[in-house]
Amino acid sequence: MLASQTPNRDTYEVSTPSDQEIRLTRLFNAPRRLVFDVMTRPEHIVRWWGCLGDGYSVPVCEVDLRVGGRWRFVNRHPKGEAAFHGEYLEIDAPGRIVFTEIYEAFPDTVSVVTSELIEEGTGTRLVAIVRYPSLEVRDAVIASGMSRGAGISYDRLEDLVAELQAGA
Amino acid sequence: MVQASDSDPLSATFAALADPTRRAILARLASGEASVTELAEPFDMSLPAVSKHLKVLERAGLIGRNREAQWRRCRLEASPLRDVSQWIDQYREFWEERLDRLEAYLAELQAEARKTKKKGSSRGRTR
User: Mean pLDDT, 10 residues at a time, over chain A (168 residues)?
Assistant: First the structure.
């Protein structure tokens, strides 16, 4: 359904440069400055981040865009709410931004997201490297299906969890 | 680099779930409590080997053991699994769909900008 609106879907690639990292890349048909703004300004973030369909919204979106500044987003979804926060570690607009990310249900699990925006023709390529606290967490993220088409398998942990919960 | 696995409960849970024998033990416990002997039956494993797996699962909070009973029957603790599943759900939707949505939004913004520009320039021409 979304595929028709997203011409660069095929440019999405996932790889694992190290035991604790996932690297994602994707091309966008937009100038770098615009992509940077859309990723860092609350008025834009609420329009795409977490807005995955009916029943999704972003009721809280706070951004203090400076090194050491905090960010906090809340995603309302059909099953409830999920809050994320973190701190900006590096900002070099419009080419690079590094921040920590914590899903508030698991405050001890901190990941670090390094995003680079590279001009490619008239578009912009995003290269994001996410560093997770351990190989186990990283592999669980891969198992969650985020790497669809990347050729990585993890023995279907996700199915097991669903199965166990159904039985429990 | 600091090894986060000790301080990060999610890493401990995922480490416990990473082993196929331990997952099979959990799947067995999903259908009801069992003793160590019963759990060892389907595997070609010694009781001490099974006990080792049970200790890992217990440390991760995935199973509980009945303290009163002499045989210490094991039972599944569902809540860490629910947590894990909830965490996974957040990430399942996270990247690919969000980046698709980002692209669609960028397209919308640029289409709006083009429209505004056109309106502005055509108005300019008629005057």
Answer: 57 84 88 92 89 87 98 89 94 98 87 96 92 84 54 36 48
Interface of B with A in 20-79 (CB under 8 A): 20, 23, 26-27, 30-31, 76, 78
Q: Which of B79, B83, B91, B98 to mutate to test the interface with A (most CBs of A within 10 A)?
A: B91
pTM over 0.80? The answer is no
pLDDT tens-digit series, residues B21-43: 888 888 888 778 898 888 888 88
DSSP chain B: ---GGGT-HHHHHHHHHTSHHHHHHHHHHTT--B-HHHHHTTTT--HHHHHHHHHHHHHTTSEEE-SSSTT--EEE-HHHHHHHHHHHHHHHTTHHHHHHHHHHHHHHHHHHHHHHHHHHHHHHHH-
CA B63 vs CA A151, B70, B126: distances in Å: 32, 17, 77
**A146 → closest Cβ in B20, B94, B101:** B94
Enter the tokens of residue B115.
């429209």
- Nearest Cα neighbor of A113 from A97, A136, A137, A133 is A97
Bridge partners of A77, per DSSP, are A80
B99/A155 touch (CB, cutoff 8 Å), yes or no: no
